[in-house]
Amino acid sequence: MSEQAILEAHGLAKTYRMGRVDVPVLHELDLSVREGEWLAVLGSSGSGKSTILHLLGDLDQPDAGGVRFEGKPLSAMSVRQRNIYRNRAIGFVFQFY
Predict the structure, then answer these.
(1) Smallest Cα–Cα separation from 25: which of 68, 54, 5, 57?
(2) Is 35 in contact with 14 (CB distance < 8 Å)?
(3) 56: helix, strand or coil
(4) CA separation, residue 74 to residues 60, 61, 96 (Å)
(5) Most buried residue, 8, 61, 79, 87, by CB count within 10 Å?
(6) What DSSP character marks residue 89?
(7) How many CB atoms within 10 Å of residue 48?
(8) Do 35 and 1 form a contact (C-beta atoms < 8 A)?
(9) Is residue 42 a contact partner of residue 50, using CB atoms and an 8 Å limit?
(10) What is the pLDDT of residues 1-57, one digit of tens each?
């Protein structure tokens, strides 16, 4: 198994606006996942679990930082490449559909 990360997030930040209030959800999150590695995202309600998964899955865009897959920033991928990434490299099981 390779020691190099296949999926990386560096400095991810995300804030949502609720009415007149900014609600920071993520602040400078770093994550590194090697090929074949399993991980679980745990936390209380409202702690940012879904936000992390949406950013890693390219369903939402971070306010700061970025995500890389196989060394390439998602932000540098074409729309077609990002669709292939979502279709073939990752999978989603939505809590609410």
Answers:
(1) 54
(2) no
(3) helix
(4) 11, 10, 25
(5) 8
(6) I
(7) 19
(8) yes
(9) no
(10) 447 899 999 999 999 999 999 999 999 999 999 998 988 889 998 889 999 999 999
Sorted by sequence, the CB contacts under 8 Å of residue 85 that are 6+ apart come out as: 58, 69, 74, 77
What CA–CA distance (Å, rounded) separates 84 from 46? 30
Answer yes or no: are the C-beta atoms of 4 and 62 closer than 8 Å. no
Distance CA 7, CA 92 (A): 16
Q: Which residue has the tokens 């296949």?
A: 6
The predicted structure's pLDDT at residue 39: 87
Distance (Å, whole) CA 18 – CA 22 = 6
pTM: 0.87
Sorted by sequence, the CB contacts under 8 Å of residue 60 that are 6+ apart come out as 14, 51, 54
Q: Give the whole-angstrom CA distance, residue 27 versus residue 11.
A: 7
Rounded Cα distance, 81 and 74, in Å: 9
Quote the tokens at residue 8: 């990386």
